[in-house]
Amino acid sequence: MRRPRWESLTGRQPALFALILLVLSIAINLIVQPNMFARETLNSNMRVFLPLILLAVGQAIVILGGGIDISVGAIASIVNTVLATRVGLDGSPQEMWTYVFLSLLIGLLAGAINGFFIAYLRLQPIITTYATSFLYAGFALYILPNPGGGIPATIAQLYRSSTPLNLPLAFFIILIVLLIWLYLRATRYGRFLYAVGGRPQAAYETAVPVTWVQFSMYVISGLMAALSGIAITMLSGSGNADIGGPMTLNSITAVVIGGNALSGGIGGVAGPIMGAITLGVLQNIISFADIDTWWETFVRATIIVVALAAPGIVNLFRRRQS
Amino acid sequence: MRRPRWESLTGRQPALFALILLVLSIAINLIVQPNMFARETLNSNMRVFLPLILLAVGQAIVILGGGIDISVGAIASIVNTVLATRVGLDGSPQEMWTYVFLSLLIGLLAGAINGFFIAYLRLQPIITTYATSFLYAGFALYILPNPGGGIPATIAQLYRSSTPLNLPLAFFIILIVLLIWLYLRATRYGRFLYAVGGRPQAAYETAVPVTWVQFSMYVISGLMAALSGIAITMLSGSGNADIGGPMTLNSITAVVIGGNALSGGIGGVAGPIMGAITLGVLQNIISFADIDTWWETFVRATIIVVALAAPGIVNLFRRRQS
Amino acid sequence: MAESLSARNIVKRYGGVVALSDGNLDVHAREVVALIGANGSGKSTMSKVINGVVVLDGGQLLLDGQPIRFTSPQVAKNAGISTVFQELSLIPQMTVAENIWLTREPLNAFGVVDRKAIKTRTEELLALFEGTYKTALHPDSPIASLPPDERQIIEILKAMSFDPWLIILDEATASLDSRQVQRLFDLVAKWKEQGKAIVFVSHRMEEIFRIADKYTVLRNGRTVGAGSIKDINEQQLIKLMIEKESALGFLRGEAKTEEKIEKEVSLEVENLTSGTLRGVSLQVHKGELVGIGGLQGQGQRHLLHSLFGDIPYSGTVRLFHKDVRFKHPHEAMKAGVALVPGDRAKEGLLYIRSILDNMLLPSWRRYGMPLKVSNARKDAEQTGSSLNLKMAGLDAPVSSLSGGNAQKVVIGKWLMRNPQVLLLDDPTKGVDVGSKAEFYSLLTRLSEEGKTILFYSSDDEELIGLCDRVLVMHDGMIRTELSGNTLTKENLIAASLGAGERLGGDA
Amino acid sequence: GAPQTEPPAATQEPATEAPATEAPTEMPATESPTEAPATGEATEAPGAEGAPFTIGISNPFISSEYRTQMIEELIAVNQEYMDQGITTELVIESADTDVAGQIQQLQNLIAQDVDAILVNPGDVSGLNATLQEALDAGIIVISVDQELDVPGVYNVGIDQKEWAKTSAQWLADKLGGEGDIVQIEGFPGHPANVARMEGVAEVFAEYPGINVLATDTGRWDEATGQQVMSNFLASYPNLDGYWTQDGMAIGALQAVMAANPAQWPQGVGEGRCQYLRLWEEALTLNPEFDSIAVANHPGVSPTGLRIAVNMLQGKQVDESKLGGANDLSFVLPLAAVITSDNLDEGLAMCEGQPDAYLLDDILTEEEVQEFFVQ
Ligand SMILES: Nc1ncnc2c1ncn2[C@@H]1O[C@H](COP(=O)(O)OP(=O)(O)OP(=O)(O)O)[C@@H](O)[C@H]1O
Ligand SMILES: Nc1ncnc2c1ncn2[C@@H]1O[C@H](COP(=O)(O)OP(=O)(O)OP(=O)(O)O)[C@@H](O)[C@H]1O
Ligand SMILES: [Mg+2]
Ligand SMILES: [Mg+2]
Which CATH fold would you assign to the domain C4-246? Predict the structure, then answer.
């Protein structure tokens, strides 16, 4: 009816900006690394990006629901250390699958602990998960004080080099996650999630099971963190109690670049996935553009600043004009 | 008129819980370290706590005004590297004071950049300062790529061992900061700060200069971060571009333990100061209680969880009862 | 002090929505101008243009005939204009005194706020409404702890404390009961004497005719009429406000017949007691529309929220002859009970989500798994139009709606559940006359379909015009029941003040 | 891991002529003032008979195999002394913390009246003033693993630059001074990384035929190292070699094994059992592959503990044996240099050790005596 204005475009498709950014960064990457879409390169990139993507999906759901989860990286670390110590470099595939299952349980439990504190005891999400991140990181360190251990090379290889239909394995995993999300969003649960993130008090007044939705979203985030931990273990083939830590802030960055509002209730999951890929591609660009090590930090910072601030600045200009 | 209930006590005196926690932790510290109040011990503790205290004060003011500042640690780092490289180990006291003055200007400028983006361009505080923290940290690294440099030992000594009136120098600095805050709070500016933190739209409609207040609080926070950077340079006597980074999250923790609401408009500065001291004392307790290395991380995490969660849990029980 | 303010051909757009296309308003000292119009016609926008909260996109403001630009609220404040905002401009975390004097705190020599002076002056202001609020209202009370009517009073006192020459009252009476309204009108009379000008926004015709000297009517962002109130009557005013004269006749409902009484009892309450309620008993029949009246805060909302499972209570509640005790609104909803909350600013709405999302939130269950969104959309459209909802589209966020239209979304989302028992907690606050009429006919239709409706309103006219019976509450108890020809304005006021027993004789 | 009281072997010594023998003569003059606290200590605490001594440890970073092995070995070596009644239980301050936190650690050690402090500094100069206070309090301070510039503080460690040069030299030789290589470094700006990269640059500067195509940081992280190497392999399929350090070497080799390019680059490894085992596995994939593993061994710390105990017992340090930037450093020989020649020996040393075990060497009491005036 009316011509679509930028405002309504970004308002209804918050992921639009993420898409533009992604396309842009892929274009630049193609310049510095022309063989980027070769099967091998694509696969080696995607398998590296996948752990962050999975983490960002969980983070996106929590943020959508009006929370935040600072402990995701630590949960991934626990899973990594458990797999690396219990399966071991010469474990059997069967053992591996048993412990993959256990890992999911661990993620579930860790998420449930967060959810319990936040949803039932009504503690502040940022503080609570910041605190539990210490606990979880400590626990990972307790399981595996020193980097080491590992999973059987054959299984790591499975993750590293499977390319069904000539596409990276990671594509299929992302696709499955996305489909589950699209289904979830189209259910009542999805609507409740947006409602709780929009305004929990109002949702509560409308008899949305707020406590339960909040609890469940931390469980989902724990589960995604566990998946991320499994992916990173497959990638590195070994254990390191610190492996997940640095990924937490990146996951939040990915979600924000992906167009979700940190205050909750706005956004989705496709945007954050694109955000996570963008972050990875940026890393590639920096690495291939042969930027001097000292400038790297700077360039990286500037790119992140721009990526984070750009939607706000675009909005601003729009506002000024109208 | 009515008997004071816990609710109204903590509501009006949000720092009450911080006070209880502080007294408790000091009591425990006294058990494990009986000479804690000896002049030397007190001084050596307070001078270590001071940088975090100053950072927490700035953070508290921003959080009161409804914002958050993730870049404070990086600002402190810039100041540290500037002092360490420009003054140098054999600089003159006069040079030192010149650069202390310059440091304050740097803090002011960094805060003003944050404030400009947030207040005038209306970007999200958490994202903006997270992004500028990269820039500032990169800048600090640019000034001083390798740890080193320093300030004249005599000046460091001044900070480290001055005990006027037999009290640690830090006491007087804290006192001055507190007095300035108490004055500020009693002025119109103080009211504006609480109003902007409480409901910016309403404040705007009431003709409170919202933009200006928001801008100014980031400037204050930048200034406090610069003071913190000066203090930590005096403490360590040398430069390290990474010195401030880990302090940012601690400053937020201190503010929350201090009873301020992360959503803004509630709290003060005395609570966060107590919160920062509590964090330091906890560190002492853990180190004197002779806890096994591996358990230390765990114990530390648990104590922080409890400290952070306790007010919420108390509230919860109160709510259940009523 | 200025003598007059004029707004000429004001244009104001919010993104793609044109809130004002040709707004005109003239107001002079010593007069009350009623600014009227349907929900979303641009009244609040006009107020915000005049007080500098929004910057106009076209047109001109004239102060004493001189063009003036209001670029911020500060500028307008300095020009002596102050406002009672429809959505209030109070900071919940701050106290009554702090809120009232914000930006004008008396300072001592050191620039320190003089707390004693503030307190005394606040007490003086509070005295103006003495007796109409609970005794706990005190200069040091935090705003967050106050009920809506007391907040509204503070907002009024705050606007007044600027000592402006022009006061804009944007639906300042919507949350007030009749006694509080009377106090406000006494003040307005005094302001007029002092040479102040007043812009009065209200949807209550009776109030407009009581205090206004002039009127200005907005329709779809355009001023379509202005003049002296003496020269116009209610019907003419309404005709100016709304394009179609739908259901207007219903406005003053004719006396109800007593035929419904024979129907079965659907809701029975015995000796319900909670914090504020001191033993409430009542019976409502199927297909009956029962009103609850009384002054603010006599336990009406407590009663409704207790029935909805929101507040714990003792006593018995029987629904369709079965004892129930809802522990959570969820259970009440399952049993076919719906509550339309009143304080829309606080409860009810997800401002950043779409109108569609908001309307359907309680009803998604009906639309399967995965949800059949197109069906839901159709139903929402239907409910929206039955409530006369003025919106850019179902996907627009609720934050883009005018106050009254947002309230319609609150009502609509509960009606969409098709409840058997409908509890209404002062639902028409700020809803315009035309929409009210549609809403009333909707309620009547529902009750004719056999729904049980319990309807609390702070608007006495509404209770009298619409309800079969009115239960008047005072101090946590039902003091009086009015129906048939005892249901008159005089009786309602008398009963509200606690003069229950003498009633029979009065009629 | 089982504490290693019997050092693996003295056989690794040939690899390094300790670069410790410069300017031995001028030292005494400048050293005498700083000697004072140590002697003061000796007289206050009545020498060897003043035992048992209490020794404190300050360590600001815990989650690395190096640090864990270090702490375990410290406890084990201290146990020997405890059994002889020379020392008491160690006072260990070990936690992840920042500069202020380590200052607090040190202050707490001072407050607990320890006789000596072994510090693994998290900052090259941020602790100076606090360490000076410790010296002033008559405490013997020894910095391990990181050379400090505080008169009176002795340093114990290997020469990081020399350590890096050893493997860079090997790579240059292996490639015959000719070829395309890439470098994966640790944290840019970290003193150890800076020293190492300087050494590497010095070596390669002598070989104009060696062409460094790119340098990236692997942040001393195995997974990052792997990713960086994967990227390099994708864009430079004809690499001749790579230089890297520590745990990143494992990631890099894994990346090579995964990519399995037509021509494998020769690469630098690390002296850790996991690497040696991976190397062995890599040889099954491509027997042409060659590598070198030089350990940066945690055993320097327990050696430092032995030095501290000797000092506490009143023995005089033979200043002429000291080296480093300020001639205040006990420069220890590299623990193990494993090449294809002695890979079997290396694997034998790893027998029964966990993957994380770093090839190690703790000087014996007798070897330590070499540093003291006889
Ligand atoms: N809760 C909802 N109620 C009504 N419409 C919705 C709701 N959620 C999404 N939509 C509609 O669906 C479309 C896409 O929504 P949205 O922006 O959430 O995409 P998305 O699939 O979540 O994207 P992604 O997953 O990135 O970010 C929009 O037109 C939006 O209006
Ligand atoms: N912030 C906003 N963003 C977008 N549209 C808005 C905004 N505020 C108001 N509008 C639109 O402007 C129009 C006029 O709104 P306004 O609030 O002035 O109406 P009103 O006459 O005060 O109605 P009510 O009687 O319901 O309070 C409405 O169509 C409304 O949807
Ligand atoms: Mg989206
Ligand atoms: Mg309005």
Answer: Rossmann fold (3.40.50)
Which of helix, strand or coil describes residue C14?
Answer: strand
A80: nearest Cα among A28, A13, A23, A139: A139
Taking an 8 Å Cβ-Cβ cutoff, which residues of chain A contact chain B?
117, 121-124, 126-128, 130-132, 134-135, 137-139, 141-142, 145, 249, 253, 256, 262, 294, 297-298, 300-302, 304-305, 308-309, 312-313, 315-316
Q: In the numeric block, which tokens belong to residue C17? A: 């929505």
| Conformation bin of residue A105: beta by default, left when phi > 0, alpha when psi is -120 to 50 | alpha
Instruction: Take residue B210 and report the two structure tokens written for it.
Output: 């919202």
ipTM topping 0.95: no
Q: pTM value?
A: 0.80
Report whether A178 contacts A273 (CB < 8 A).
Answer: yes
Concatenating the DSSP letter of every residue in C379-445 gives HHHHHHHHTT---S-TTSBGGGS-HHHHHHHHHHHHHTT--SEEEEESTTTT--HHHHHHHHHHHHH
Give the CA-trace dihedral at B36, B38, B41, B46, to 10 degrees.
Answer: 90
Q: Which CATH superfamily is domain C256-336+420-507 in?
A: P-loop containing nucleotide triphosphate hydrolases (3.40.50.300)
CA–CA gap between residue D32 and residue D30 (Å, rounded): 6
Structural element, H or E, at residue D142: strand D140-144
A–D contact (≥3 CB pairs within 8 Å)? yes
* Vertex C405 angle, CA C400 and C409, to 5°: 95
Residues 6+ apart with CB under 8 A from D43: none
Residue C38 structure tokens: 């349907």
DSSP state of A120: I
Host domain of residue A115 = 12-310
B165 contact partners, CB below 8 Å, separation of at least 6? none
pLDDT at residue D260 is higher than 90: no
**pLDDT tens for residues C448-491?**
888 899 999 888 888 888 888 899 998 888 888 888 888 888 88
Residue B319 lies in a domain: no
CB C173 within 8 A of CB C181: yes
The values of phi and psi at residue A304, to 5°, are -65, -40
CA angle C433, C437, C443 (to 5 degrees): 140
CB contact under 8 A, A141 and D62: yes
Q: What is the CATH number of the domain that holds B74?
A: 1.10.3470
Chain D environment of B287 (Cβ under 8 Å): 93, 95, 104-105, 108
- Is B207 inside any structural domain? yes
Cα D363 to Cα A141, C351, D298, D306, D348: the distances in Å are 30, 71, 12, 8, 20
Classify residue A63 as exposed, middle or buried by CB count within 10 Å of its CB (0-12, 13-18, 19+).
buried
Within A14-71, strands assigned E span: none
Chain-centroid distance, C-alpha C129:
19
Is residue A208 situated within a structural domain?
yes
Strand order, beta sheet including C278-285:
C278-285, C265-273, C314-319, C322-324
C-alpha C217/C-alpha C224 separation (Å) is 6
With tokens 């006070």, the residue in question is B19
| Record: contact C370-A187, CB cut-off 8 A | yes
Q: Can you tell me whether residue A15 is helix, strand or coil?
A: coil
Residues D260 and D257: their CA atoms lie apart, in Å, by 5
DSSP class of residue C397 equals B
D86 three-class SS: coil
Confidence of residue C189 (pLDDT cuts 50, 70, 90): very high
Q: Do A135 and B298 touch (CB under 8 A)?
A: yes
Which of A108 and C300 is assigned the larger pLDDT? Answer: A108
User: Collapsing DSSP states into helix, strand and coil, what is residue C454?
Assistant: strand
End-to-end CA distance of chain B: 20
pLDDT value of position A312: 64
SS3 D372: strand
CA distance A271 to chain C (A): 18
Q: How many domains does chain A have?
A: 1
